[in-house]
């Protein structure tokens, strides 16, 4: 029995209405089991014959989904450095513009 045969058996088992299959061929043993998709028949249960209607329906509550973690509020969004770091000198073009502007 090769993998193609096993896959074929599994497909047919899945499509059928069996819930358990045990197969042994030579040294290969295959056990397949699935939950029953059909519920057992239930006894007839009578429903209440009267329905109670209220004057106004209750408003649905809108619950905010709970998020994991926490929020950090900061007025500073980002910093832009024209040089490689705050302590390094400005680039050559920026230094020339700042001298001309003064």
Task: Write the topology of this structure.
Elements (H helix, E strand, L loop, with lengths): L2 H13 L4 E6 L2 E6 L58 H10 L1
Antiparallel strand pairs: 1-2
Mind explaining what this structure looks like?
The chain is of the alpha+beta class and 102 residues long. It has a domain at 3-33. It is built from 2 helices and 2 strands, in the order αββα. It has helices spanning 3-15, 92-101; strands spanning 20-25, 28-33. Strands 1-2 form a two-stranded antiparallel ribbon. The longest helix has 13 residues, at 3-15. The mean pLDDT is 71.
Summarize the structure.
The chain is an alpha+beta fold and 102 residues long. 23% of the residues lie in helices and 12% in strands.
List keywords for this structure.
102 residues, flat, alpha+beta, 23% helix, 2 strands, two-stranded antiparallel sheet
Spans where pLDDT lies below 50 across 5 or more residues: none
Note the gap between the termini.
88 Å
Gyration radius (Cα, Å) is 36 Å
Number of separate helices: 2
- Number of strand segments: 2
The strand order across the widest sheet is: 1-2
The percent of residues in helical segments reads 10-25%
Main pleated-sheet profile: 2 strands, antiparallel
Written as H for each helix and E for each strand, in order along the chain, the element string is HEEH
- What global shape is seen? flat
Rounded mean pLDDT is 71
Q: Looking at the chains present, what oligomeric state does this protein adopt?
A: single chain
Q: Which range does the strand content fall in?
A: 5-15%
Sheet/helix structural class: alpha+beta
């Amino acid at each position: 029995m090769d993998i193609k045969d096993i896959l074929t058996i599994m497909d047919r088992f899945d499509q059928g209405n069996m819930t358990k299959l045990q197969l042994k061929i030579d040294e290969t043993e295959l056990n397949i089991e699935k939950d029953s998709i059909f519920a057992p028949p239930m006894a007839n249960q009578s429903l209440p014959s009267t329905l109670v209607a209220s004057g106004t329906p209750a408003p649905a509550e809108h619950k905010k989904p709970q998020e994991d973690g926490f929020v950090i509020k900061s007025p500073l969004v980002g910093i832009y450095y024209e040089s490689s770091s705050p302590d390094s000198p400005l680039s050559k073009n920026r230094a020339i513009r700042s001298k001309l502007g003064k």
